[in-house]
Amino acid sequence: MSTTSSTNTAKTDLEGVRVADPEHWREGPPHELFKQLRNECPVHWSGGMTSFPEEPGFWSVTNQELVHEVSRNYQLYSSELGGMVGMPWVQLEVQNGMFIGMDPPKHGRLKSLFQRGFTPKRIAEHEAAIRAITVAQLDKLEGRETCDLVSDLAQPVVSRVIGSFMGIDEADDAMWAELMNRLVGGDDAEMNPEGPQDVIETVIPMIVQRCQVLIDARRENPTDDLMSILVHAEVDGDTLSDWEIVMGFILLVTAGNDSTKATFCSGMKALLENSGERQKLIDDPELIPSAVEECLRMFPAFAHFRRTATEDTELGGCPIKKGDKVMMWYPATGYDEDVYEDPYRFDVTRNPEHQAFGAGGRHFCLGTALARLELRVMFEETLKRFPHMEFAGEPRYATAIFVNQLTTFPVRLSPGA
């Protein structure tokens, strides 16, 4: 079982390649294709998306330097004009309702509402609670021979963590996780069996309806959770509309449900494939923060974000026209040979910088400190409890262009069990 590489190393004719087509994503990110793009055509034109014929073509950016250039120039590359992700099943109205889908100055005003709750100091105060949630879920696995690391450990832990931040009843964690998984994995047959159109017709309306119940409850009886902050916050003297609150809720709960889960499971897969690296962490848990950064480099939770050019320009020698879509592929930039030595080698001592949380600029991830803390605690407690975990079957990747994650990961908790 390979950590990253595709078994097919034959070169592809890049001229007709559509990077976002499902054929390239059935076994995770298309690392061989990304390597070829970085080396031969780091700014590449795809004529569209075969699965979504109405979608326009787009430019793929696959090296760190150019992704950094796009990320930091919001005046030239807008998050708001054409949507911040290439997910046709999430309407532009929904994308633009989240602050991540806005341009300044509105982006900054809304993001500032959340920042005080996500500073490293504030997040560190939650370590004991996050550890207790993780340990409680691991306790439920005691006595079992096998489990699915996605559904039996990672998903319940991350759902409860973000649920506790948002004021979600624990009994509703699984419901919200399913809705958010269907939303972000709308093009994956397992995450969203009803198909992308059902996200528009059923999932998003259901999220809005159920979120409205929470809004009404916090408006009447405020608490100290983030939902109460959203409901009672003021921006330029005005409270947020219910729609803005719902969009803020979706952004936080989606990120909380999918980001840590994705990187943790892929990281555990790499540790099972590289027993020597796993043993380093067991022998010296102080290396786990470095391992977290290596996992973030190699296994970023989200495959891309998108921008729209506001005027004619040039990127990496390619002419970008006003209105063109530009996709920044983070599973590609994490393996940039100009940045990393031997980038396909999983090395828990590397402690790299990376672009898993974005490449700088105003849209740098708000939840960075929380994600790092969750990952560290989950690796610490899982390796301590089940240091000899083994594969019990073949993991399955989501065939999806936004979420970079395993949907199933069967493991044997102890050898010989």
From TrEMBL:
The keyword Iron applies. It comes from the Bacteria. GO terms for molecular function: cholest-4-en-3-one 26-monooxygenase activity; heme binding; iron ion binding; steroid hydroxylase activity. InterPro entries: Cyt_P450, Cyt_P450_B, Cyt_P450_sf. Residues 12-24 have a biased composition (Basic and acidic residues). Residues 1-24 are annotated as: Disordered. Residues 1-11 have a biased composition (Polar residues). Pfam families: p450. GO terms for biological process: cholesterol catabolic process. Keywords: Heme, Iron, Metal-binding, Monooxygenase, Oxidoreductase. Belongs to the cytochrome P450 family. This is Cytochrome P450. It comes from Paraconexibacter algicola.
